[in-house]
Each structure stands twice: as structure tokens, then as C-alpha cells.
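Human: Note C-alpha cell order:
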Amino acid sequence: MQVFIGTSGFSNEDWVGIFYPETVKKTHWLEFYAEHFNTVEINSTYYAVPAQKQMTNMITRTNGKLNFCAKLHKSFTHEFTATAKSASEFRYTMQPLLEAGKLGALLAQFPFGFKNTLESRLYLEQLASWFTGFPLAIEFRHASWDKAAVYQFLADMGVHAVSIDLPPLKDLPLPVLRRDQMIYLRFHGRNQANWFEGKDAAERHDYLYTAAELEPWVTTLKATQVKTAYIYFANTTRGQGLENARMLHNLLGLAPIFTASQNLLL
């Protein structure tokens, strides 16, 4: 299995001194990141759709070392104001990644309030049709979707189901590895106290996994016959996702991504 492991986003100011040396300018963070990881999940596309040339530049700047997944704009998953024209514009932006073979998937990350209803399922059918020809992965945050029939529904549309690790709280999906043509796995942390009560995403994802917490995932990943896996750590607060990415690399028996001589979370 080809495994891509990275973090959700890379432009984290609190990584300076932990991961990014103070001598490296922010404009060169992506290049530095690409020296240590083989994939990154692009968060910025959730807030604004960039120009197509920015995607081309990301490939050039990283010398083809990185594969990318990218979040759909919030108009598709939270505001529900997107149109077929919006989808066409987003596909145009992502075309360079697709043509270069550097696009793992487009991520539709739906919120807790998006529940399993007929209206929601019809919307997913529309969304899948808008992104025909692009790999699309869908993440649910509400347990009402956590049914075998739902995952078959996604598979029938050619859409990937995202596996997620979340706090063990009521109405959140169970941490089960979903498999189809590829695996898309996201670690959000298990910060129970702040998941619903935290003031922002930084508080909600403030969590460092232990090796014992990652081991069950490692066992399942090693046993799967799926050819490709994209794995991202969204617990990026204070660089914790960096440490967990390194930890997962080691647990899977992959080549280390950090060396002890570097000033990282070791």
C-alpha cells in the first residue's frame, strides 16, 4: 500500500521554532514542509477559491514531491449556496493537480448539523454529479450517517467515505476504517472537553495522540489490501499533528520523516 501522511494545512504560526526554523520565511514554508512530508491537505480552499495558477505553483514549488487533497469551499458544505457554476470554477482551479497526478481527492467536510435526511442525500447526489471526473471524498460529523447503507450509497456514486478519529462523544461517528479504492483517514484528536465547548478550532483540536491510541489504526491499515491511503492529522495546535505524523510513520514501519538532530517534537 502506498501511504501518504501529512497534516491538515501547513501555514501554522505556532509551528515556528517547533517545525519551521525562524530563518525560513513564511513564503517558503511549503517548500520546507515538502522536505519532510509527501502530502498536505489544503485548508485555504475552504475559505476562498484560489486562482488556478496557485495550484500550478504549488506543484512547481515542491518539485512534485507532494500530493494534495483540498477542501471544498464552504459554500458547498456549510453555507449551501454553491451552484453548478461554482463547481465548474472549483474544478477549473484544481485541474492542474488532477492532470499532474497530484490530487488525492477533493474533501467535502460536512458539519455536525448536516444529518442523514432525504434532502441531504439528494444534495449529495447533486454534489457528486457536479464533480464527476474528480476524486471526491465526503466526511460526516453526525452519527446518523454511520450506516452500511450510507457507505454503499457513496460507493455507488463513486465517492470516497472519509474515516475519522474523533472524541468518543454522543452522536459522533465511530472510528472505523472505511475502504473502497482508497483510504482517506483524518485524525481530529480526542479532546472531549473542548470538542463542543471550545472557543475555536485550535482548542477543539488541541490533542496529542499516544502510540497506544494509534496502534489499532496501524493494525487495521497493515491488514488492508487497498492500494493507496491518504492520512491527515488535523490536531495541528502547538505542532501536535507533526509529532503524531512522525509517530504514525514509525508505527507503520515507514522511513522516518524527521531526524533527531532537528528541533521538532521529538
About this structure: The domain at 2-251 is CATH 3.20.20.410 (TIM Barrel). Confidence is low (pLDDT under 50) at residues 259-263.
